[in-house]
Amino acid sequence: MNAHTPVAKADPSRREVLVVGAVVAGSSLLVGCSIGDLMSIGSEAEFGAFGPFIKITDDGQVTVISKHIEFGQGSHAGLAAIVAEEMDADWNRVRVEQAPAVAKAYANSLMGVQGTGGSTAIANSWTQLRTAGAAARAMFVEAATKKFGVPAGQITVKDSVVSGGGQSATFAELLFDASKVKPPKAPVLKDPKAFTLIGTDRVRRKDSQVKSDGSALFTADVKEDGLLTAVVAHAPRFGGKVKSFDDTAARKVKGVVDVVEIPSGVAVVATGTWAALKGREALKVEWDDSKAETRSSDQIMAEYRAAAAGKGPEDLKWTPFDSKGDASSATGEVFEATYDFPYLAHATMEPMNCVALVKGNNATLTFGSQAPTLDQLNTAKIVGNLPGAIKIETLFAGGSFGRRANFQSDYVVECVHIAKKAGKGKPVKLIWTREDDMRAGYFRPIVHHALKITVDKDGYPATWTHRIVTQSLMKGSPTGVPELDETAVEGAHGSPYLKATPVVDAQLALPEVGVPVLWWRSVGATHTAHVMEHTIDQLARKAGKDPVEYRRVLFTRAGAKRHLAVLDLALSKAGPVPGGQFRGVAVHESFGSVVAQIADVSLAEGADPKVNRVVTAIDCGTAISPDQIAAQMEGGTCYGLSAALYGEVTLKDGAVQETNFDSYRVLRLPEAPIVETHVLPSGNPPSGVGEPGTPVITAALANAMLAAGQAPVTRLPIVRAVA
pTM of the predicted model, to two decimals? Predict the structure, then answer.
């Protein structure tokens, strides 16, 4: 039993239609409006008596409605634990269900739209879910006071059992009465000292069983009556368009039912995946590359270097991101360094896919949607409906690292176009192969850093001049591009090292390049962590100082107490350096969390560097699930190490050269280090965990190589750089 009441109407007013129409058309009528409210117009949603985040069935089972997708990061368990803690629900009888796409109810409070990213799932839900859980508990307590005839102060709740005055009743037994109680607007939240679930090893994943036995539903598992399968032939160069195509041979392939042109290429639609792929092989397409990106990646990087050196286009705009004092009058010993970072693929285990059913101007999407609001908006543009009317069933997804959420909803839009043109009322499943995703997907952009630092008589930075050249990740945002693209400078902007430096001149340039780029796990920190931490190690060694003590001085000057705390914690757990190995240290803040890593590295002649052990200390605020935090540190470290050693996507005349894991090298199981995770105790609200473990390892490894007397790592990947 779970009473439902409608919360969003299906009949929008004329004004609402006009406003949403303006948004869909790309206008900026957002002043005074909530994006979540606007994007929900036309939707239908029902919430139970306990609100949008909690459902309770007649048998007392508690279902937590998650507004965030589960694609391997384990956030569902943490989100459920927040509710269960405040409700005092039986953790063994708590499950998680994916929320519908209704931004008005389920918007990410840190983004304004419904979406998962930026390591914000727990952080933005913390107070919201605590309040929901506490309100539900209060409703049961009030119901019990009436049933037991005792005051609320004498009522206790434990494991879904409400007790008082020598009597007790389960959530199931009190459900009817509790559902009639008006939820309190400001329920009393638990004192964290009273937590019995949060912060314990009891908080384990809720999806392990279904993913182990194969019953978990991913997009590839979707089977519906009349389901068609589609693949797309994309241009070999970004920005290329279809000039002409011959589908004669493709249509002769058994199972192929249609071949249609869509804005991003030519789609082959068939009764199954094999037929669609064979049909695409038989397709002949002539491409128009007149507006395509035809530069090679080395050429793009050379242009970036020239720009940073002041030899770029005169109209290239430079935007300050940290500035104090006058660096032009600097005197003293000068340190200069440049750093180059390649394109990187997300390389998710499950490539992109989507199922779309289009009937008239109605559309239903079934897939692992990371940003439902964006996917609704972009679908609405195609079918001519209100964004809120687009229905999305979000499934599990096999990884993302940022790939599944982009302003254009690229693969989703493809699927909708195909379903509209060729579906004829039948659902269409779009499949991207690994090669499709490697060649036609989005990438972490190429980045170039140029630094010029003068040091004082003690060897500490006196002036810091910094130039960053890269592509903007915010281009195409429906809310406009900010004056400063923080995604390009986060981790450098506001760094304690810059705070501790008297004079700073740090600027960013964002040249136009025709390669589609996107946030990649840990976003700006993927390059800034290495630049800042590897530079500090070099400065310390140049000054003849211990790199750890050098950091301590700068952290103290900057008032970076959290950085000092995680550094000290990691050092206390690391122990002595093993014989024959070299140790590197790095500390970096991202997504509200501070991570220190100590890497012990072997450097055998003629062999790739081998990271044997990584001691990680993290300050991520209140730790919901220590076990899951450790898992994210382990996975993030290996993901970052993979990119540091081997990751690189190259372009030759605009075409991607790496098409699968045979040419896009990733870390292999025997190469993975032991990762030990230590969580700094904290009473602060939770901060990010999914991404902060990724960027630090690159610098820790490079600093270990410095300790071994090797040259600084100024170009990634490391293996290519030293080859």
Answer: 0.94
